[in-house]
Amino acid sequence: MKTAFIIHGVGGTPQENWFPWLKEELEKISYQVFIPQFPTPEGQTLDNWLATFKEYEKNINAESIIIGHSLGTPFALAVAENNKFKAAFSVAGFVGLTGNIFEEGMKTFTLHDFDWQKINANCEKFFIFDSDNDPYVKPEKGEQLKTYLKNSERITVPGAGHFNESAGYTKFPLILEKIKTVF
Amino acid sequence: MEKLEQLEQEIKSIKDRNKKVEADKSWETSLTRKILVAILTYAVIVIFFYFAQLPEPFLNAIVPTVGFMLSTLSIPFFKQIWIKYIYKK
Prior knowledge:
The complex is a heterodimer.
Chain A: E1 2-7, H1 19-28, E2 31-34, H2 46-53, E3 64-69, H3 72-80, E4 85-91, H4 103-110, H5 116-122, E5 123-131, H6 139-148, E6 152-157, H7 173-180
Parallel strand pairs in A: 1-2, 1-3, 3-4, 4-5, 5-6
Chain B: H1 3-28, H2 31-51, H3 57-60, H4 62-87
Helix pairs in contact in B: 2-4
């Protein structure tokens, strides 16, 4: 069975942004969708998030995809170091320092020593969504991700901000369109 | 307000507060403050000695000023002893 994992970002919840909408849309096309709630902002460390994700790992199979929003991206990549995915999606994602106000609480994720070889071997395809006016993530971060991720497609969406509710993102048809191309 | 923006606001407030606390702390431990306290203490004692018609106010004011400064400057040392041996118990 096709499964999808949606990973929220700093201060995030499974109910925010376009997550519930995407879950509903993916369920319509026979996906089983998981949107875990991770500890944030208190207890927001890579180890804590990996521990939270442990119970979801049994649902990863050859037809799984993982979607990370913001801080969800470095987390999804860390998960992909040890798990195979059909595709991974980064939305307003990044690795390395961002220079934004949330920097301190994200360092265990962003400064993680990613094994790019393993990540590239474990994921067939990567999609990187970024925007030209993200208040938290510079456009160079999308470019940087693209250099690390071999079979990747970068999609810069003009005016999409941080792809969150403030930017009007309660629906995200473009990602659904790209997910549909995976199988 | 949405959660991320709310969190951003909270972090900004904490950072602003920390900046103010750090400035206060730097002032409290600065040499400028110590010199200023010494000068003001000396001046007050000189004025008092002068109006109280005590002999040699400029010279005699040095002793209580030095005494006051020594007691003030040695307080952090006693604070450490208090924290180590009394507060933790």
